[in-house]
């Protein structure tokens, strides 16, 4: 009999509840536990999501719980924090999010954590670094979704500009999950071909591709959503579910994640979004893309932004 695949989500707000829903409808795990200071909210969300499971080919259990559930969790998701308001950057919520996560870590440190911690609280890279240091867990077991969502937004933008499926766009956003993230365009391919070659061969379809437009939309799409409806939730919920699937199914799949760099891309002692092989043990390997000198400089600048805001 297979072991029970269990995910605990700490923070049952907009983001945490949508993470739970994305996990539930895809049947990625067997048990989802929501933990929140507002136990009534966590219980209500768990009941609502459990009702939705009745319509799918899934037997996942969704319930409210507490920190003791983290003892045997395969994955602990930290989603609690201070939400971004219109006009704010992710860095603007740093102080409030750190205080919130500091309380969470104090509770986690009372038990033995055997699983993997994935953080999605903003600012994502700084919070991942803080949680890793505060828990003392090895770097492969504490990381953030990082630039997963930035990558999705980049691919979506490219797809919209040339009217193709985003699944046909292969590339990554790297660095900070934020306004300094960069796209290594030298590695961006569509249908396996460098996008610049496609622009030359078929300007009618691919001529609208612009590095500035793609970068700007990657940075601004999140704020556009927040200004329109107050929060982002569906995209990050699905990004988390996709990463959790790579862990639980031991897929050894390459995904962007914010992990500790120890010399990769010339950076040390900083969490930043880079392509990683992810499997049952978390981060198995960091993939080092060949970047141009200008791209390395852009990545360094993004890492410097993260370093300037790191906390103990």
Automatic annotation (TrEMBL):
Subcellular location: Cytoplasm
Biological process terms in GO annotation: glycolytic process; lactate metabolic process
GO CC annotation: cytoplasm
Chain ranges of the Lactate/malate dehydrogenase C-terminal domain: 147-310
Pathway: Fermentation; pyruvate fermentation to lactate; (S)-lactate from pyruvate: step 1/1
Documented EC number(s): 1.1.1.27
UniProt: NAD(+) binding residues: 11-16, 36, 41, 67, 81-82, 120-122, 145
A Pfam family annotated for this UniProt entry: Ldh_1_C
Listed InterPro entries: L-lactate/malate_DH, L-lactate_DH, L-lactate_DH_AS, Lactate/malate_DH_C, Lactate/malate_DH_N, Lactate_DH/Glyco_Ohase_4_C, NAD(P)-bd_dom_sf
Catalytic site positions: 177
Protein family: Belongs to the LDH/MDH superfamily. LDH family.
Function per UniProt: Catalyzes the conversion of lactate to pyruvate.
Subunit relationships: Homotetramer.
Protein name (Swiss-Prot/TrEMBL): L-lactate dehydrogenase
Source organism per UniProt: Eubacterium ventriosum
């Amino acid at each position: 009999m297979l072991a029970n695949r269990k995910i605990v989500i700490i923070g049952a707000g907009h983001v945490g509840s949508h993470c739970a829903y994305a996990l539930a409808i895809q049947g990625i795990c067997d048990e989802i536990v929501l933990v929140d200071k507002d136990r009534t909210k966590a219980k209500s969300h768990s009941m609502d999501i459990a009702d939705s499971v009745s319509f799918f080919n899934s037997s996942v259990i969704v319930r409210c719980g507490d920190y003791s559930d983290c003892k045997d969790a395969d994955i602990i998701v930290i989603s609690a924090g201070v939400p971004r308001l219109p006009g704010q950057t992710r860095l603007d919520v740093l102080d409030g999010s750190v205080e919130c996560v500091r309380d969470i870590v104090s509770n986690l440190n009372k038990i033995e954590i055997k699983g993997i911690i994935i953080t999605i609280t903003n600012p994502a890279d700084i919070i991942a670094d803080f949680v890793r240091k505060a828990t003392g867990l090895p770097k492969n077991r504490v990381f953030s979704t990082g630039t997963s969502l930035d990558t999705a937004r980049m691919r979506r933008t490219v797809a919209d500009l040339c009217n193709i499926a985003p699944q046909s766009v292969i590339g990554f956003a790297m660095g900070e999950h934020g306004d300094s993230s960069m796209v290594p365009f030298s590695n961006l391919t569509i249908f396996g071909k460098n996008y610049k070659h496609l622009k030359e061969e078929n300007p009618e379809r691919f001529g609208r591709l612009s590095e500035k437009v793609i970068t700007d939309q990657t940075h601004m799409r999140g704020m556009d959503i927040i200004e329109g409806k107050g929060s982002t939730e569906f995209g990050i919920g699905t990004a988390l579910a996709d990463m959790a699937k790579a862990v639980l199914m031991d897929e050894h799949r390459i995904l962007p994640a914010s992990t500790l760099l120890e010399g990769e891309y010339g950076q040390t002692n900083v969490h930043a979004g880079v392509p990683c092989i992810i499997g049952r043990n978390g981060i198995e390997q960091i993939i080092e893309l060949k970047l141009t000198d200008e791209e390395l400089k852009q990545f360094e600048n993004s890492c410097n932004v993260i370093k300037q805001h790191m906390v103990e």
